[in-house]
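Subject: Predicted fold for LPS biosynthesis protein WbpP, 179 residues

User T.R. writes:
Posting the sequence so we have a shared reference for the thread.
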Amino acid sequence: RSLVDPATTNAVNISGFLNMLIAAKEAGVASFVYAASSSTYGDHPGLPKVEDLIGRPLSPYAVTKYVNELYADVFGRAYGVKSVGLRYFNVFGPRQDPDGAYAAVIPKWVASMIRDEDLFINGDGETSRDFCFVDNAVQANILAAVAEGDSLNQVYNVAVNARTSLNELVEILRGALQR
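User M.O. replies:
I've generated the structure tokens; pasting them so everyone works from the same file.
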């Protein structure tokens, strides 16, 4: 979506985020938890992904998420607005929408398998992802909300640090669905 309409992506993700930071500052919010993104890593090849080693963003969306991190950092230093950014990696879980151009791969493939449709795998299927169950993402948000001291004004990866290739994922899903 951001490749087709970078201006709207900028308006929503950067201007919207800045408005939230200003509101947090004016309201005296104790700490501000926000959704960062694993897309910030861009083309950096290193694994596992480490919070302070990022590459060049690969989309306007990724740029906006990185700018959000920069703004949060500046608001922490300039205005005392405490924040925690969470870089989510491929979150999945119950009731996730399998339809649409931006649907996550797990619900999309589960729906296709249930309907006995062919799966589309981009490339050779050896690309790996770090899939994070929604309960883990919820726990990260709760921990971020109660963070104190040096844990504030940081950005954290929300992942399980386990690589799963798309081919492996297909086999895992087939086994779970007995397909």
